[in-house]
C-alpha cells in the first residue's frame, strides 16, 4: 500500500510523469519498464532529438537522461528542458563516471546522478527523493510568489491610502513613511527616513506634537488624535492641517528584523501613525467663521462682531473705571459715486477707504463696516475726549486726498459722530445710537467734520420713531412753517434781506426748531422734500413783497448739504424759481464752508452756473469750518456771514472782536458783502457799524417771525424810509 502511493507526485497526488531518454533501445525499454512497474506514467524517447520534440509537446515532472548520445546529447536536452520546461527536474542516468561530466551535469541543473548499470532499488529511491525535493522547491517558490504578491498588495494599500502613514523609531525618527507625504507635502519618503518627525511639523506645533506622538501611555486600542500643522516643502505654499493619530506599537507585533540594514522597511518602528489632511475642512470652517463675523468686501468685522467687542470693552472699561469712544462714520458723497460710476467702482472705493481708515488706527481699535457706506469704530481705552478728537481728525484728514478709480479721480469725505462711555451712554446700543445721532448733526451742518454726542441732541428711540412718522405726516399735512428774520443795513436801518428759517408747527409738541428735526430729516432723506417746501413758500412770500414795492429785497435760504450735492441741484433750483416767478437776482443761497470743501471741483462748477443765472452765494457760519481762504477768490461768492459765536465774543473780550475785525477787513479786501449774525445788543451793533460791517441780523432787530409780522415790519421801515 505504501509502495502504491510512492509513485504519486507529492504535490499533485497523481502518478508522476517521467520522460526516459536513451539512444540504446534496450536500456530505454528496461528503464521504462522498471518505472512503469513502480506505478509511474512513463514516456520513452529514443535519442536527444526525440526527447526535445517530446518536451516541446508535453510537460513532465521528471526527465531521466543519458548523457552521451549521438547528435543531440544529454547536455543539449538539459539546456532545452531548462528553457522550455523549467518545472521538469532532471536525473542523469549515464555510463560516464568522469568527475567533470558529473559535475558539469549537476551545474547545468541535474538534480541527481545515477551510474549505469544501475541498481533498480537505488534508482527508484533516487527518483522518489528527487520528486520529493522538487515538490519542496515548488512549494517554496509558491510561498515566495505569494509573499511577493502579498507584500505588493500591502505596499499598494499603504501607498494609496488617502492619509500619510508613518512609523517612528523609539527616538521619534521616521523609519517608514508612505508616498502620500510627497503628494501632500512635497517631500520624497527617502529624504525623510532617518530624520526626526518634528522636521515636518510647523514650528509652533513641535512641542505639542512631540509630546503627544511619543507619549507611551496611549495604545492602539486607545490611540491619541490631535490636530497639527505640517510644513510643505520649500514653504512656498501655506502649511497644511492634519489630524494625526499615533500610538506605540505593542512589543509582540514589532516588525521583525534580521540585519537592520534596510532603513526603509520600518523594522525599527516603535510608533505607528496616520496623518489625515484636513486643510480643506479647516479652511472651510475658518471661512464660515470669518463670513459670520466679517464683511466680505472690506474684510472688516461686521455689525455682530463689533457689538460683541463693544460689549466686552464696556465691561472692561466699567471694571477699570476707564473711558471708551464709539464713532459712527458715514461717507459723504458715496452715493453719488455709486450712482454715477456703478457698484463695482463703489465697491472698490469702499475697499480703498477702508485701507486708509485702517492706516489711522492702532491694533486694539475695532473698525467695522456697519452696512452700506457706514462704519463704526471702537476705541477701547481713551484718556479723554482729546484722544477721540485726535483720531477723528486723523480719519477726516486721511480722506482729503482723492481716490483714483480707473481713470476717475473721486473725492469722498467722512462725517463722524462720537459717543464717549460713560457720559454718552451706558449700554452698547445707546452708545451706537448716540454716535449715530451725533453723526447726523454733522451731516446737517455741512458734513466732513466730527461732533461729540451731547444730551440736547438726544431723542430717545421711541421718540425718534414717532417723530419720524410725524415728520412724514407733517409734509402731507402742511405743518411746516417758514419764519423770517430781517437782515438790516447798519447805515440806514433798512431791511435789505430776509432769511428764511424753517419751523414745524407740531400738533402736540408745539413749535419745533430746526435743531429738533433737521438731523432726523437728513437721516431719513426727508430733507429734500422739506427744502423744496421751504423754498416754494419763501419764494411765494418774499416774491409778493418784492412785487409790492420792495424790489431789491433779498431772500436768503439755507441749503442742506445733500441738496447741493444732488447732481441735478442747479437745474432743480432754477426750475423752482421759474415756477414761482421769483427773480433769481433776489435770491441768496447760504451754504457752509464744509459743503464747498467737501467737493471743491463739483461745487464750484455748480455755484458758477447759479451765479451766471444771477443767484447770490453766501458763506454761512464763516470762520467756524475749514477756513481755507483759498477758495474765496476762486468762487463766485457774494457774502460772508460772520458766525454768531464771534459776534457774541465782541462783548467778552478782545479775541472775539479780533476775529470779527479780521473777517470784516478781509471781506472789504475781497469786495464781499458782510452780514454779522446774532447781533443782540446795541454795543455789538455799534461796534460792527464802526468796523464797516454792512449788514446785521439778530435778536436786536427781532427773532425770526411769521410772514405776517415781517410784512408789517417791512411796511414800517418803508414808511420810515419814506419819511427820511
Ligand atoms: N442766539 C441767537 N440766535 C439767533 C440770533 N439771531 C438769529 N438767531 C438764530 O440763529 C440761527 C441762524 O441761522 P443759521 O446760522 O443759518 O442756522 C440755521 C440753519 O443752518 C438751519 N436751518 C434753518 N432753516 C433751515 C432750512 O429751511 N433749511 C436748511 N437746510 N437749514 C435750515 O438751522 C439752523 C438753526 O436755525 P434757527 O434755530 O432758526 O436759528 C437761527 C436763528 O433763530 C441772535 O441774536 N441770537
TrEMBL record:
- Give the GO biological process terms: cellular response to nitric oxide; phosphorelay signal transduction system
Q: Which residues are annotated as modified residue 4-aspartylphosphate in the UniProt record?
A: 66
Q: Which Gene3D superfamilies match?
A: 3.30.70.270, 3.40.50.2300, EAL domain, PAS domain
Task: Please report the stretch or stretches of sequence annotated as the GGDEF domain.
Answer: 322-455
Give the keywords, sorted: c-di-GMP, Phosphoprotein
What this protein is called in its record is cyclic-guanylate-specific phosphodiesterase
Any idea which GO molecular function terms this record carries? Answer: cyclic-guanylate-specific phosphodiesterase activity
Q: Where is the PAS domain?
A: 150-221
Enzyme Commission no:
3.1.4.52
Cofactor(s) needed, names only, are:
Mg(2+)
Q: Which residues form the Response regulatory domain?
A: 17-131
What InterPro entries does UniProt report for this protein, alphabetically?
Biofilm_reg_signaling, CheY-like_superfamily, EAL_dom, EAL_sf, GGDEF_dom, Nucleotide_cyclase, PAS, PAS-like_dom_sf
Pinpoint the EAL domain residues: 464-718
Enzyme superclass (EC)? hydrolase
Q: Which reaction does it catalyse?
A: 3',3'-c-di-GMP + H2O = 5'-phosphoguanylyl(3'->5')guanosine + H(+)
Amino acid at each position: 500500500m505504501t509502495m502504491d502511493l510512492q509513485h504519486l507526485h507529492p504535490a499533485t497526488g497523481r502518478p508522476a510523469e517521467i520522460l526516459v531518454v536513451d539512444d540504446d533501445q534496450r536500456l530505454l525499454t528496461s528503464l521504462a519498464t522498471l518505472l512503469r512497474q513502480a506505478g509511474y506514467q512513463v514516456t520513452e524517447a529514443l535519442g536527444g532529438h526525440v526527447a526535445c520534440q517530446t518536451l516541446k509537446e508535453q510537460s513532465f515532472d521528471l526527465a531521466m537522461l543519458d548523457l552521451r548520445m549521438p547528435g543531440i546529447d544529454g547536455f543539449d536536452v538539459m539546456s532545452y528542458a531548462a528553457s522550455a520546461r523549467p518545472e521538469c527536474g532532471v536525473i542523469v542516468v549515464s555510463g560516464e563516471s568522469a568527475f567533470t561530466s558529473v559535475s558539469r551535469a549537476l551545474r547545468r541543473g541535474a538534480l541527481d546522478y545515477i551510474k549505469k548499470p544501475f541498481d533498480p532499488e537505488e534508482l527508484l529511491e533516487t527518483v522518489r527523493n528527487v520528486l520529493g525535493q522538487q515538490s519542496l522547491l515548488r512549494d517554496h517558490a509558491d510561498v515566495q510568489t505569494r509573499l511577493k504578491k502579498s507584500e505588493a498588495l500591502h505596499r499598494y494599500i499603504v501607498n494609496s491610502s488617502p492619509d500619510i502613514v508613518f512609523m517612528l523609531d523609539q527616538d521619534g525618527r521616521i523609519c517608514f513613511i508612505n508616498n502620500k507625504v510627497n503628494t501632500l507635502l512635497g517631500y520624497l519618503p527617502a529624504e525623510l527616513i532617518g530624520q526626526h518627525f518634528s522636521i515636518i511639523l510647523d514650528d509652533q506645533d513641535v512641542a505639542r506634537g512631540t509630546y503627544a506622538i511619543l507619549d507611551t501611555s496611549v495604545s492602539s486600542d486607545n490611540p491619541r488624535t490631535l490636530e497639527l500643522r505640517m510644513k510643505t516643502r520649500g514653504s512656498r505654499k501655506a502649511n497644511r492641517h492634519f489630524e494625526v493619530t499615533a500610538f506605540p506599537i505593542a512589543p509582540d507585533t514589532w516588525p521583525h528584523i534580521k540585519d537592520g540594514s534596510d532603513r526603509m522597511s520600518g523594522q525599527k518602528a516603535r510608533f505607528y501613525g496616520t496623518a489625515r489632511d484636513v486643510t480643506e475642512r479647516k479652511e472651510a470652517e475658518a471661512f464660515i467663521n470669518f463670513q459670520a463675523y466679517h464683511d466680505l468686501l472690506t474684510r472688516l468685522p461686521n455689525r455682530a462682531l463689533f457689538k460683541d467687542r463693544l460689549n466686552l470693552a464696556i465691561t472692561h472699561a466699567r471694571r477699570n473705571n476707564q473711558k471708551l469712544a464709539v464713532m459712527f462714520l458715514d461717507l459723504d458723497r458715496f452715493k453719488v459715486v455709486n450712482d454715477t460710476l456703478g457698484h463695482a467702482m463703489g465697491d472698490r472705493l469702499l475697499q480703498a477707504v477702508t485701507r486708509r481708515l485702517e492706516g489711522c488706527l492702532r491694533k486694539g481699535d475695532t473698525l467695522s463696516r456697519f452696512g452700506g457706506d457706514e462704519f463704526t469704530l471702537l476705541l477701547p481705552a481713551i484718556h479723554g475726549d482729546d484722544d477721540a478728537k485726535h483720531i477723528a481728525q486723523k480719519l477726516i484728514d486721511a480722506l482729503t486726498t482723492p481716490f483714483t478709480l480707473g481713470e476717475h479721480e473721486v473725492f469722498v469725505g467722512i462725517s463722524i459722530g462720537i459717543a464717549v462711555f460713560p457720559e454718552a451712554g451706558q449700554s452698547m446700543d445707546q452708545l451706537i445710537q448716540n454716535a449715530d445721532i451725533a453723526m447726523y448733526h454733522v451731516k446737517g451742518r455741512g458734513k466732513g467734520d466730527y461732533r461729540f454726542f451731547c444730551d440736547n441732541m438726544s431723542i430717545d428711540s421711541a421718540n425718534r420713531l414717532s417723530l419720524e412718522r410725524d415728520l412724514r405726516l407733517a409734509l402731507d399735512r402742511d405743518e411746516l412753517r417758514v419764519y423770517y428774520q430781517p437782515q438790516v443795513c447798519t447805515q440806514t436801518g433798512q431791511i435789505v434781506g430776509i432769511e428764511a428759517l424753517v419751523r414745524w408747527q407740531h400738533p402736540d409738541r408745539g413749535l419745533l426748531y430746526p435743531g429738533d428735526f433737521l438731523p432726523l430729516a437728513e437721516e431719513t432723506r426727508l430733507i429734500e422734500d422739506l427744502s423744496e417746501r421751504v423754498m416754494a413758500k419763501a419764494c411765494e412770500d418774499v416774491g409778493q413783497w418784492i412785487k409790492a414795492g420792495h424790489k431789491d429785497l433779498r431772500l436768503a435760504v439755507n441749503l442742506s448739504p445733500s441738496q447741493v450735492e444732488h447732481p441735478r441741484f442747479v437745474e432743480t433750483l432754477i426750475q423752482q424759481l421759474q415756477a414761482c416767478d421769483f427773480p433769481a437776482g433776489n435770491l441768496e443761497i447760504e451754504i457752509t464752508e464744509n459743503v464747498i470743501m467737501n467737493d471743491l471741483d463739483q461745487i464750484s462748477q455748480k455755484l458758477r452756473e447759479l451765479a451766471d443765472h444771477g443767484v447770490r452765494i453766501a458763506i454761512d457760519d464763516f470762520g467756524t469750518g475749514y477756513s481755507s481762504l483759498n477758495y474765496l477768490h476762486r468762487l463766485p461768492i457774494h457774502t460772508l456771514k460772520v458766525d454768531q459765536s464771534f459776534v457774541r465774543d465782541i462783548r467778552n473780550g478782545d479775541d472775539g472782536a479780533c476775529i470779527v475785525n479780521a473777517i470784516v477787513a478781509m471781506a472789504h479786501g475781497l469786495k464781499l458783502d458782510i452780514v454779522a449774525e446774532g447781533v443782540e445788543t446795541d454795543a455789538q451793533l455799534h461796534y460792527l457799524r464802526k468796523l464797516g460791517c454792512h449788514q446785521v441780523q439778530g435778536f436786536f432787530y427781532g427773532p425770526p417771525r411769521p410772514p405776517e409780522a415781517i410784512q408789517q415790519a417791512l411796511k414800517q421801515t418803508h414808511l420810515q424810509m419814506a419819511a427820511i
